[in-house]
Design brief:
This protein is an alpha/beta fold. It contains two helices and seven strands, in the order βαβββαβββ. The N and C termini lie far apart (32 Å).
Length: 122
């Protein structure tokens, strides 16, 4: 049985602000229009859709249950570009042949950039 992950739902207090975050910093495209209670963001050629859904008051945001990880070849270059646009990532961490860094979206969800997908197999 095959199953492909291609859609992530993010619950947000301010749907527009959250959709704009993923558009501005990670290159997703969107009309920004709310249809069926969702703002849809798509990624050209990557096959991933993010749906931004209005969070109910009872939902606790910013929990560590899910972290979105974006593959980036040049971690430091990407961090500089984002900083110029207003998003500051934390320290760059070295792992097993790759590096990564974390930031928060407007709803305090952790997002990470990682060069893991580009590491060389030794």
């Amino acid at each position: 049985m095959d199953a492909e992950l291609n859609t992530i739902i993010i619950y947000a207090r301010n749907m527009d602000k959250t959709a704009d975050f993923y558009r501005k910093y990670f290159g997703f495209t969107t009309t920004g229009e709310v249809l069926e209670g969702l703002i849809e963001l798509t990624s050209e050629g990557r096959g991933l859709t993010i749906l931004v859904h209005q969070a109910a008051k009872s939902i606790k945001l910013g929990q560590a249950g899910v972290k979105l990880v974006f593959s980036v070849q040049d971690i430091e270059g990407f961090k500089r570009e984002c900083a110029e646009l207003g998003l500051v990532f934390g320290a760059t961490h070295q792992a097993n042949g790759y590096s990564f860094s974390n930031a928060k979206d407007p709803d305090k969800n952790t997002v990470s950039i990682s060069s893991r997908a580009y590491r060389k197999n030794a």
